Amino acid sequence: MNRTAVPPSADTAPSSASAGLAGALEGLRVLDLTQMLAGPFCAQLMADHGAEVIKVESPEGDMTRAFGPYCDDDQVRNMGGYYQSVNRNKKGVVIDLKSEQGREVLLSLVDKADVLIENFRAGVLDRLGLSYEKLAERNPRLVYACIRGFGDPRSASNDYTDWPAFDVVSQSMGGMMGVTGAEDGVPMKVGPGVGDLIPATLCAFGVLAAVMRAQRTGRGQFIDVAMVDGVLAFCERVIYQYSISGVIPRPQGSHHPMFVPMGVFPAADGWVTVGSPNDGFWIKLCKLMGRPELAEDPRFRSNDDRVRNAPALKAELGAFTSAHTKEQLRQLLGGQLPFGPIYDAQDIFTDPYFAAREMLVEVEQPHSSKKLTIAGVPIKMSETPGSVRTRAPMLGEHTREVLLAAGMTAAQIDQLTASGAVRCAA
């Protein structure tokens, strides 16, 4: 794309308008006992909008701290791009939950918390004496949320309760991979970790719904989101299509099986997407192609006609798009009908749209002279805008600050540190 690159040092920082305002969730205190992707992303959604999120890590830290990529001059390598991308705006504390003193420290934090989120395998915290039931006795207003591969037995016992799961498992068993991939080809995983991100987003919604009820009634509740369930809920037509027709949906490549044209088409220098399944857009597309007669072709008059004759229509449209560059197609079709070039990371950094929307944000990268660019806050709010205020925390960076705020004395914190129950960053 022939456009001017956006200088990241100037235009990708959070706007001053949003950085200084409290978010809509100001005053909400969240204990984040999660690791990897699903749980941390769930808690980060709330942190972006002003919640005080306290990330509780073991002395070894979230395993994603060891995941790269790292800046070339980072010799410490205990916080890579992965960890930074899902733990911003949080305070970091280290508590050894395997120790009795450590568990008592956590309980003191639970007493003043609104929400606790964890994504351990079922029963892990129960065996440590930190079950939902015990925590709810201490703090009846507590909203306790868990994200597990196949859910928690409190909701429904099942044969998979004890199975560990990652993104690829929830995508496969939730039905998403069964309809993703080349037509008549091998099922394919969606590129980003949507098997984590989808249940994370659903869990954040569930937490806020439960918090609203707790504010009215004074009673929290247990929230259980299974990764597989979350993916299934986002699989759109898979369930109803099979229920109605008995047809098992299969991978359809980059085109929609029920709306035509709706998919990926070749350009002279890459690929573009075009969606014009309704008659109005289809007629306009034919005119813009210089082929108005196609709109009157009996094979293509209605969407049903176009579905039946999809190969012929794709050939006609593909011949047109492949004769033009992405930029030429953008000039011709952009804004006229649903159209977009397929972007890679460099295209995203170059298009000024993403800077204008504050979707490329720089944060400090510890142990490096460079800054790291991460994705910004996608939910825009007029009165209480979310923002990226702080980078992800170093391991134990805020332990002392959080425990002092919880009412402990410096001497007590020193004793807990000496015993190994907690850890404070140097």
Topology of this protein?
Blueprint: H1 8-11, H2 16-19, E1 29-33, H3 38-48, E2 52-57, H4 81-86, E3 90-95, H5 100-110, E4 115-118, H6 124-127, H7 132-138, E5 143-148, H8 167-173, H9 194-217, E6 222-226, H10 227-233, H11 238-245, E7 262-267, E8 270-275, H12 279-288, H13 303-308, H14 310-321, H15 326-333, E9 339-341, H16 345-350, H17 352-356, E10 360-364, E11 371-375, H18 399-405, H19 410-419, E12 422-423
Parallel strand pairs: 1-2, 1-4, 2-3, 4-5, 5-6
Antiparallel strand pairs: 3-12, 7-8, 8-9, 10-11
Helix pairs in contact: 3-9, 8-10, 9-10
Keywords:
single chain, 426 residues, alpha/beta, Rossmann fold, formyl-coa transferase, domain 3, seven-stranded mixed β-sheet, three-stranded antiparallel β-sheet, disordered N terminus
User: What is the mean pLDDT?
Assistant: 93
* Domain module count: 2
Report the β-strand fraction as a percent range: 5-15%
Q: Classify the secondary structure makeup into a structural class.
A: alpha/beta
CATH topology of the largest domain: Rossmann fold
Second rung of CATH, namely the architecture of the largest domain: 3-Layer(aba) Sandwich
Q: What's the end-to-end separation, in Å? A: 47 Å
Radius of gyration: 25 Å
Helix content: 25-40%
Number of helices: 19
Q: What does this entry look like structurally?
A:
With 426 residues, the chain is an alpha/beta fold. The chain folds into two domains: 302 residues, Rossmann fold, CATH 3.40.50; 89 residues, formyl-coa transferase, domain 3 (2-Layer Sandwich). Helices cover 37% and strands 14% of the residues. The strands form three sheets. Strands 6-5-4-1-2-3-12 form a seven-stranded mixed beta sheet, with helices on both faces. The chain has a three-stranded antiparallel beta sheet with strand order 7-8-9, with helices on one face. Strands 10-11 form a two-stranded antiparallel ribbon. A hairpin with a 6-residue loop joins strand 10 and strand 11. Helix 3 packs across helix 9 and helix 9 packs across helix 10. The longest helix is centred in the middle third of the chain and has 24 residues. It is elongated, with a radius of gyration of 25 Å. The protein starts with 7 loop residues before the first helix and ends with a strand. 37% of the residues are buried.
